[in-house]
Amino acid sequence: MVNSIYDEVGGFMAVRKLISAFYDNVLDNEELAVLFQNVNMERLIDHQTKFFAMLLGGPVSYTDEELKRVHARLGISNHQFDLTKDCLIEAMEDFDFSEDYADTIAEAFEEKRNLIVQSN
Ligand code: HEM
Prior knowledge:
Blueprint: H1 5-8, H2 11-27, H3 30-33, H4 41-55, H5 64-71, H6 78-94, H7 99-110, H8 113-116
Helix pairs in contact: 2-4, 2-6, 6-7
Bound molecules: protoporphyrin IX containing FE.
């Protein structure tokens, strides 16, 4: 069987580190940090780690419906989504992810835009 990207990049721990770096970038950005003011980051990182593990072909999944539901009341804009994507790309660059993997992950993130964004 062909290894998934998830295995190739080092499994759960590697993905967890990436997500942690990603959130450091997000919290450094004022326009994004406001969204996370009252959120338990540890729990969120744990959820996001599982989600990204899923994107990369690892275990665990969230349905589109669940993603839409948890973000519905947050009023996330397209601009904030773009900034978040930049934070992710930056984190992958810092971890020297291969360009192919980084592109695949950024595309998978982009595919969820309509479930996450509420306004312009
Ligand atoms: C592919 C894109 C995204 C995925 C897969 C994703 C995934 C998730 C998941 C699974 C949760 C639920 C955590 C829980 O059950 O408590 C969550 C919550 C949250 N997400 Fe996202 N998210 C995405 C994009 C974004 C973006 C772009 C933002 C902000 C710019 C954002 C902000 C938040 C916030 C603030 C919460 C916490 C809600 C709360 O518990 O009060 N997410 N996200």
